[in-house]
């Protein structure tokens, strides 16, 4: 399988950059001159680290822009700002080893995500500048993140301490996520699914909090493109051959009365594959359509996330969207490995936003799921006849399952450096891992009672031991969006126990058994309370314990977090959040977000 995928990508054109601002004591006559090289070296070291470690979703290294000169006053700050605007900088990091003139050197762009690293050294007061500059940002209503190393370093060292590097990288990851969303689109393919409030797309939230527009198409667009063959016929043939070789069919669980004919199933495969091509083209466009004389359709909607309504107006008459959702959300297809397209089941735009957040923070695929059931240890024994000894399930587990599709990365067949299951950026996935994901997945004729017009559902179970973060973005009347976060692990049940529990829901759907990490407090007193306090029927599962990144990103967007199990020492928010309270951080987060309002406009 080739490393470079030929599919159209949403991540083309100019991508946001990180601006590095080397800031200096402006006093000429000995002070500034002695600091010029040290300050610029600090900027270069940071830029190199960011470029070496971080990548855009398309796999390219992130780009950094360093100010042409050290910034000692307003004129140089203005020149740097102009350079950053022309270069497309979305994230600014100010670095300095010394005292500088705070309000004269600060970044004043209200939409730039800001941080300041004040060098911890005793020769020059970098920490004093950091405190003064952060106070200025707080006073002017321009939130900024403060970065200060724990250990004193000698002046002139080019080494970036591990604690500083971690904060810089996490800040940059989250800031770039903000920049990558700005100016893009969410594509609502259809409307409300089965009365689910999350699929009643709130364009104001996308515009004011994420800087994105909402594009809407009626599902008859799929009918028209199917009937008129408005897709790449050569790619369809290639995809159909790949599916036949790599997507093994599993058991048909329909009754004899509701089973569909082989001819019907084959037709459902054809339509499902065409729907995947059409959905992708609707999101990001396809130059092949222009060659067919379809110039308008070739452009797409500039969408980095989308939702497919499906039930019921579509699925009562046409094959469901399970294949398109599963394969587009996966990090590979018939063309090879590639960045996943973010597509939400049932057009749940709020879950799509959560999937988008997770993808931009980790560059990996995301699992869309129902938070279906809490299984206590006693209930598991009653249903399966077995008592589980795994310590992680002592308090019970949560059943994450989607009604048909989920990214094949969610099988957990990819591994990290220690051999533990994970979901990786597409450029780190091996061909063997692609094959393992495909072999761990079976495709089943959809249950006819649910989907009268057919379609194909993915079935797999996630490998146990995958560090994971479950999140949900909710929309609250009078408050706006608010985020929930639960870190934990995937659980692998014995085969007979898994089957006993899974069959009670639907054996044709993909399952992840999840055990949240408990703290003994609040909503994390028990796994039951996590389920009981969840704000909606859907959730997103992201690989890794990345709740701290979600918290940082949420603060940048001014979205409060009202439920999480992230240790306090891992939480990183703008320094001004402390002014809203240091004892109850959750309440302070709500007050700060309310005070500043959405990033791109007042509520």
Description:
This protein is an alpha/beta fold and 603 residues long. It is built from 19 helices and 22 strands. Strands 12-13-20-19-18-21 form a 6-stranded antiparallel β-barrel, surrounded by 4 helices. A 5-stranded parallel sheet has the order 2-1-3-4-5, with helices on both faces. A 4-stranded parallel sheet has the order 7-6-8-11, sandwiched between helices. Helix 5 crosses helix 13.
Major beta sheet, strand line-up: 12-13-20-19-18-21
Strands, count:
22
Number of helices: 19
Radius of gyration: 25 Å
User: What is the beta-strand fraction?
Assistant: 15-25%
Shape, per Cα inertia axes: globular
Mean pLDDT: 94
Outline the fold blueprint.
Elements: E1 17-22, H1 31-53, E2 64-66, H2 74-87, E3 89-96, H3 102-105, E4 113-118, H4 126-140, E5 144-147, H5 162-181, E6 185-189, H6 203-210, E7 213-217, H7 220-227, H8 233-246, H9 262-284, H10 287-291, H11 295-299, E8 303-308, H12 322-329, E9 332-333, E10 336-337, E11 342-345, H13 349-362, E12 367-375, H14 377-384, E13 397-401, E14 414-415, E15 421-422, H15 431-439, E16 442-445, E17 456-459, E18 467-476, E19 480-491, H16 495-502, E20 511-516, H17 527-533, E21 538-543, H18 547-557, E22 561-563, H19 585-596
Parallel strand pairs: 1-2, 1-3, 3-4, 4-5, 6-7, 6-8, 8-11, 19-22
Antiparallel strand pairs: 9-10, 12-13, 12-21, 13-20, 14-15, 16-17, 18-19, 18-21, 19-20
Helix pairs in contact: 1-5, 5-13, 5-18, 8-9, 9-12
